Amino acid sequence: MTAAIPTPAFQEELAEVEPATLTGRTRKRLTSRWASLFALVIAVLWTIPTFGLLLTSFRPEKDIRTSGWWTWFSDPQLTLANYDEVLYGGTSLSTYFINSLVITIPSVIIPISIACLASYSFAWMKFPFRDTLFVAVFALQIVPLQVALIPLLRMFVNADLNGTFWPLWISHTIFALPLAIFLLHNFMREVPGELMEAARVDGAGHVTIFLRIMLPLVTPAIAAIAIFQFLWVWNDLLVAITMATGAQDIQPLTARLAELVGSRGSTWHLLSAGAFVSIVVPVIVFLFLQRYFVRGLLAGSVKG
Amino acid sequence: MNNFEKFGQMALAVALFVGVMGLILLLVGRTRRRADVWQSLAFVLPALLLLGVGLIYPGIRTTYQSLFDRTGDEFIGLDNFTEIFTNSDMLIVLRNTAVWVILAPIVATFIGLVYAVMVDRSRIESAAKSVIFLPMAISLVGASIIWRYVYEYRPDQQNIDQVGLLNQLLVWVGLEPRQFLVDSPLNTIFLIVILVWVQAGFAMTILSAAIKAIPSDITEAAQLDGLTGVRMFRYITVPSIRPALVVVLTTISIGTLKVFDIVRTMTGGQFDTSVVANEFYTQGFQLGDTGLASALAVLLFILVIPIVAYNIRQLRKADLR
Asked: Lower CB density within 10 Å: C or N end of chain B?
C-alpha cells in the first residue's frame, strides 16, 4: 500500500522555489550515512504496521487467530475468504460501506456550495458588519465539536430526525463551514478586482460574476477543500457515533469497525479485512489527488 | 432501508439542496443593482443561519448546561467543574490529556522535521515522503486497528504464539510479553505512538515546504562561514522555519486535545487511559450525565484558547520582523 508515489507536478512546483545551487550541495553533506539510516528506520517503522494489516487480511481465519502475520513467510497461505465474508457475509460490512458513501457525498457537496456563496459575499460584496461577521466565522474554527454535540442531538431528536441521515449531513455541513469559508475567502480575495470590474461594466450582476468568473478560477481550491472534507467525513467517528447510535441503517464504516474492535470474539479475524475496506477509499482518493491535498494543507488548516 | 432507498434519499437531499441554491441564485439574479444588501444577504445568510443554529446556539446551551446537574433540572453552580478538578478518576483523565498534549505534538513535529531535512533533495524524496504521509489518509479508527495487531497480547504459555508484532519481538529477545494496552501508566504512551504515527506526515509536509522556501543566500552565507551538518540544522534551518514550526506544533496540539477515536477504539477509556474528549462522550452519551459532559466540553474549549492565542502571538511576532 505504501508504494512509491511520485507527484511530479508538486515536485516541480517546489523545485521552482529554489534552484539546486550551492545549497543543494550543503544539504547533501548533511545527509550523511547516519542521517540516511535514521530516515530508513523511520520509513520502515511507518510502513510495517500497515503492511502487517494488509497481509493479515489475506490469511485464513485459523492462522490469524493463532499466529502473527510474519509466520506467513514460513507458511505462505493466502485467501480471499475474509473479504468475501466481510463484504457479503453475515457481518456484512457492505451495508456500512454504502452508508459511509451516502453520508459522505452530500456532506461534501452541501457545505462547500454554501461556503462558496458565503465566501464570495465576504470577499467581494458590501454589506453592514461584513468584517465583524467574517472574523466571527473565522473564530468559530477553534470551537471544538464537542461543545455543540449534545444540544444539537437534542434538536434532531425533537425534530424527529434521528435515525435518518439528516443529522449526519447537517452536522457535518455545519462543522465544515468555518474552515471552508475562511480558506475559500482567502483564495477568492486573491482574484484581481479588475476582472470583476470589467464584468460589471459589461452589465454582469453578482450571480453571473460568481458563476462565470469566480467559480472557474477557484476550482483548484475547491478541489483541495473537497478532498479535505471527504477524508474528514469518511474518517470521522465522533459525529457518527453520536448522531447514528447503533442504527445499522445509517451507521458508517468507522462506527461499525470501532464496535467490532471492542467485541473480541467471533469477528476478530474479520477486523483486518474490514479495516482495509475502510482504508482503501480514502487512500485511493488521497493518492490520486495528493497534489491538491498538499496544496490545501499548505493553505493552513485547523479543523475540528 | 435497502441500498436503493439510501441512494434515493441521498439524491433527494442533494437535489433539494441544489434546488434551493438555484432558487436563491435565480432570485438574486433577477433583482437589479439597487438591492445590493439583499443580494449579499442571500449569499451569506445560509451559512450564517447554519452556524448560528448549529454551532453558536448549541455552544451557549452547553455552557449553560454545564452549571446544572446530570439531568439538567437543578442548578448546581460550578460543582461539575469542581468534580473534574477533585475526583480522582477525573484527575487521571486530566493527567492523561496533559501527557497527550505535551508529548504527541513535540514527538510528531520532531520526527517530521528531522525526516524532512533528511530526505530533502535526495533521489527518492517523493517516495520517501509518501511513506510517512500515507497514514494521514487513514481514519484514526483504521490506524487503531492497524496498531491493534502490533500491541496484541497472548498469555505467555506453551503452544501459544504471540499475534502482536511487538510482543513477538519481546519474546524473540527473551523477554516476557506484556499487555501494552492494559498496564497503566505506560499504556497511554503506547496510544500516543499511534497519533504520532499519523501526525508525523502532516508535520513533515508543512516543514518540508518551509525548508525549501529558505532563501539560498542565507544558507550559502552560512556555508561560507563554515556551518555544516547539525550546526547548520540548529542555527539556520530551525530558526528560518520557526513560523512553520509554531503552526505545526499548535495545530497538532489542538488536534491532540480533541483526540477521541484512538482512545475509544483501543481501550474505550478503560485501564486509566481516558482523556477529556473521550470522557465527554462516556459521560454524555453512555452514562447520561449531561451536566458533567457539558462541563468537560467547555473545559476542552477553554484549553484550546491559550494554544490558539500563542499561535497568533508568535505569528504576529514573525510578521513584524
From this structure: C
Residue A175 with chain B: CB contacts under 8 Å: 55
The pLDDT tens digits for A160-183 are 888 889 999 999 999 999 989 988
pTM of the model: 0.86
- What ipTM was predicted for this assembly? 0.87
CATH topology for A94-298 is MetI-like fold (1.10.3720)
The beta-carbon neighbor of B17 closest among A46, A110, A178 is: A110
- Per the CB < 8 Å rule, is B254 touching A254? no
Contact criterion met (CB < 8 Å) for B200 and A46: yes
Q: Do A31 and B122 touch (CB under 8 A)?
A: yes
Strand partners, B68: B75
Cα–Cα distance between A101 and B321 in angstroms, integer? 48
Cβ-based contacts of A157 with chain B (< 8 Å):
none
Chain B contact for A201 (CB, 8 A cutoff)? no
CA angle B67, B70, B76 (to 5 degrees): 35
* Chain centroid offset of residue A97 CA: 16
Q: Is B320 exposed, middle or buried (0-12, 13-18, 19+ CB in 10 A)?
A: exposed
Per-domain residue ranges of chain A: 27-79, 94-298
Contacting residues of A for B266, CB less than 8 Å apart: 261
Which grid cell is A263?
A: 467485541
Question: Which chain B residues contact residue A128 at CB under 8 A?
Answer: 37
Q: Note the pLDDT tens digit of each residue in B157-200.
A: 777 777 888 888 888 888 888 888 888 788 899 999 999 999 99
